[in-house]
Amino acid sequence: MGIESMGVGYGLFGLVILVLDIWGIVNVIGSRAAIGVKLLWILLIVILPVIGLIFWFLAGPRGVRAGA
Predict the structure, then answer these.
(1) Taking the chain, what is the end-to-end CA distance rounded to the nearest angstrom?
(2) Is 28 exposed, middle or buried (0-12, 13-18, 19+ CB in 10 A)?
(3) CA nearest neighbour of 25 among 10, 15, 38, 34
(4) Phi-psi label, residue 8: left if phi above 0, alpha if psi -120 to 50, beta otherwise
(5) 50 alpha carbon, distance to own chain's centre
(6) Distance in angstroms (rounded) separating the CA atoms of residues 40 and 34
(7) Residue 64 domain-assigned?
């Protein structure tokens, strides 16, 4: 396994994290939380992409569901 193939794996991991971060931010924006709370969660996700996403997934505000 060469250096070139390792770069592709890391690039794919980065792309997955980017997509999940965008998904998390969209869900925070769509939630019923107060503006200040939304801003703090978005900053956490942007500044700490992996850890912020994990924290949001465990404790963050959720978006409003279509059936609700």
Answers:
(1) 49
(2) buried
(3) 38
(4) alpha
(5) 7
(6) 10
(7) no
Each residue of 4-62: pLDDT tens digit?
Answer: 666 677 888 899 999 999 999 999 999 999 999 999 999 999 999 999 989 988 998 87
Given CA atoms 51, 55, 58, 63 in this order, what sign does their dihedral have?
A: negative
Distance CA 32, CA 37 (A): 10
Looking at residue 13, its amino acid is: F
- In 3D, which of 53, 65, 48 has the Cα closest to residue 20? 53
> What residues make up the domain containing 44?
3-59
**Total domains, the chain:** 1
68 in any annotated domain:
no
Q: Is residue 65 part of a domain?
A: no
